[in-house]
Amino acid sequence: MKIALQRPNFSKWIERITWQDLLGIVIGSLIAAAGIQCILVPANLLTGGVTGLAILLRYSTGIEVGIWILLLNIPIFLAGYRFISSRFTIYSLLGVLALAGFLYVFKYFPFLIGDPLLSALLGGVLSGLGLGIIFRSKASSGGTDIIAIIVKRLWGFNIGQTSLVLNIFVVGLLALVIDISVAMYSAIAIFVSSQVIDQVEAGLGVTETTLIISPHYEEIAYAILHHLHRGCTYLPAQGAYSGQNEMLILVTVGRMQLPRLKEMVFAIDESAFMIITNSIEVYGRGFKARSEY
């Protein structure tokens, strides 16, 4: 029997433009530009994507990085407006303009460290921190981020794969145009930047969601409620092999509370079965409020 699916009603959902997002985009662009223009560019190193390509073109032509970023993003934004939401496009346009502007300002404040490895590490951290703040503000710095989203929607490749291919292409060009050792240090900067972006985008409030299977579920739930002061949920289940009816416990806790949760569970039942996964964002009582989105 074929079931007709009802289309969700999104008529009450509106993409809101908030001052918090706009401020985050500007601050993120400021930090990213400082890492790129003050540290990476003086060391002749690249970041990934269109920004890295812009730096490479700057080495070849002498035209400033910010100008190349604007020029390279024009066709990308035309495609992004067609395939991605209008708010994302507007936010990302602000991100590109702010990044280009700060890159122009910071060209007068080079900070040459002297050690290419330290330059790659510090530049990667700063650029990743800034870009991560931009991503958390529901925007991007343009370039490969928009390309990756479009590729995913059209051909199904995930964003990480597309970004990796584009970054390898940019670093490969650097190796051909300048030097293989510089390309390798640039690869380090790109890797560090991507790791920092992931951490910043996830936020410091990463929580752990745990599924607990134990015949002593009532005692464990009592300990969670009264000693850990967290809510939990019973999930009825049946063992596939044993056929026995069981009650599972679902609980989400802060990362700092996880060791205590495990200690309590195994003190009650040392044979308990626990599945622990990272939860990047949790909304509801005891965690983030809806207004924080």
Q: How would the blueprint of this fold be written?
A:
Blueprint: H1 19-40, H2 49-61, H3 65-83, H4 86-106, H5 116-136, H6 144-155, H7 159-177, H8 180-202, E1 207-213, H9 217-226, E2 233-238, E3 245-254, H10 258-268, E4 273-279
Antiparallel strand pairs: 1-3, 1-4, 2-3
Helix pairs in contact: 1-4, 1-5, 2-3, 2-7, 3-4, 3-6, 5-8, 6-7, 7-8, 9-10
Describe, in plain words, how this protein is organized in 3D:
- This protein is of the alpha+beta class and about 290 residues long.
- The chain folds into 2 domains: about 180 residues, no CATH class; about 90 residues, Alpha-Beta Plaits, CATH 3.30.70.
- Helices cover about 60% and strands about 10% of the residues.
- It contains 10 helices and 4 strands, in the order H-H-H-H-H-H-H-H-E-H-E-E-H-E.
- It has a 4-stranded antiparallel beta sheet with strand order 2-3-1-4, with helices on one face.
- Strand 2 and strand 3 form a beta hairpin.
- Helix 3 packs antiparallel against helix 4.
- The longest helix is centred in the middle third of the chain and has 23 residues.
- The protein starts with 18 loop residues before the first helix and ends in a 14-residue tail after the last strand.
- The N terminus is likely disordered.
